[in-house]
């Protein structure tokens, strides 16, 4: 008889909106606080992320909110919908959590919610996860991504070690979407304006044209899955960088919402890894 394993209990936090700021035409910052974040903590990763739960809390909802009880008692179509967002910043002293949202009009769930958010609104979340931070022992750092990766890149730039060079490539729609990054003197920030070109096209070209210096390179590449796949092949196969120095993942995929992407991501990753292994074997 197979012993049933119990799922680890998911702690659901409740953030109360403390402030909302329009950073750029398509980026909104929401700062959460309140006693609902008393148990929230991060492991210090610059790519920490939370799973936001929609719809927002409503009168009559059970508190504390038990995700396992919801999954056990309700059909799947009645479970809350999750959306994944980077923790832009978290202050453990004040319990204030900052999340930046890409907003494209009324499309999606989280973006429209953030655009309409006002102080006092609440939102449930669980996490955080994460696994990357700049390694002070690396000789050089390479960070690249689109708007979806900008919060994680901005957080990482603030933690890049002094005295070590870094190349940062961020692709956005146009100059109006640029943000000021708190970078030290050896960090080279390259803003790439996509315009009408396909997402990832300027970014892939720019990273391909970069001549990496000698030494150990630590890499962070995240964003749309198509260009992430291309850059992973470039860096892992063509440039021969070791896998353990690469943090590369697709945050989203053209033509899929998050539910569709997450359900297919594991298979996508297997295909990419198989292609990568075959290419490396061909190169000897």
UniProtKB/TrEMBL annotation:
SUPFAM superfamilies: Riboflavin synthase domain-like
UniProt domain FAD-binding FR-type: residue ranges: 10-135
Gene Ontology terms, MF aspect: oxidoreductase activity
Any one Pfam family match given in the protein's UniProt record, by short name: SIP
Superkingdom of origin organism: Bacteria
Membrane-spanning residues: none
Matches recorded under InterPro entries: FAD-bd_FR_type (IPR017927), FNR_nucleotide-bd (IPR039261), Riboflavin_synthase-like_b-brl (IPR017938), SIP_FAD-bd (IPR013113), SIP_fam (IPR039374), SIP_rossman_dom (IPR007037)
Annotated protein name in UniProt: NADPH-dependent ferric siderophore reductase, contains FAD-binding and SIP domains
Organism expressing this protein natively: Nocardiopsis flavescens
């Amino acid at each position: 008889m197979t012993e049933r394993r119990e799922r680890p209990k998911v702690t659901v936090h409740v953030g109360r909106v403390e402030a909302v700021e329009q950073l750029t035409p398509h980026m909104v910052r929401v700062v959460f606080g309140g006693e609902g974040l008393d148990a929230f903590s991060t492991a210090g990763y610059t790519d920490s992320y939370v799973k936001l739960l929609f719809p927002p809390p409503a009168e009559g909802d059970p508190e504390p909110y038990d995700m396992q009880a919801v999954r056990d008692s309700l059909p799947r179509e009645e479970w809350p919908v999750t959306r994944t967002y980077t923790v832009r910043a978290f202050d453990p002293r004040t319990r204030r959590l900052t999340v930046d949202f890409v907003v494209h009009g009324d499309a999606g769930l989280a973006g429209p919610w953030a655009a309409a958010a006002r102080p006092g609104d609440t939102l449930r979340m669980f996490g955080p996860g994460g696994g990357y931070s700049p390694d002070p022992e690396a000789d050089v750092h390479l960070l690249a991504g689109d708007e979806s990766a900008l919060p994680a890149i901005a957080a990482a730039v603030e933690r890049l070690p002094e005295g070590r060079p870094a190349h940062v490539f961020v692709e956005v729609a146009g100059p109006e979407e640029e943000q000021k990054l708190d970078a030290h003197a050896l960090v080279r920030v390259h803003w790439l304006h996509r315009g009408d070109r396909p997402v990832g096209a300027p970014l892939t070209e720019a990273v391909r044209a970069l001549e990496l210096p000698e030494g150990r390179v630590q890499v962070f590449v995240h964003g749309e899955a198509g260009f992430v796949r291309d850059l992973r092949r470039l860096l892992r196969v063509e440039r021969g960088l070791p896998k353990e120095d690469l943090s590369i993942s697709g945050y989203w995929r053209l033509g899929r919402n998050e539910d569709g992407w997450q359900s297919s991501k594991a298979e996508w990753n297997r295909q990419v890894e198989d292609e990568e292994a075959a290419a490396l074997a061909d190169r000897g």
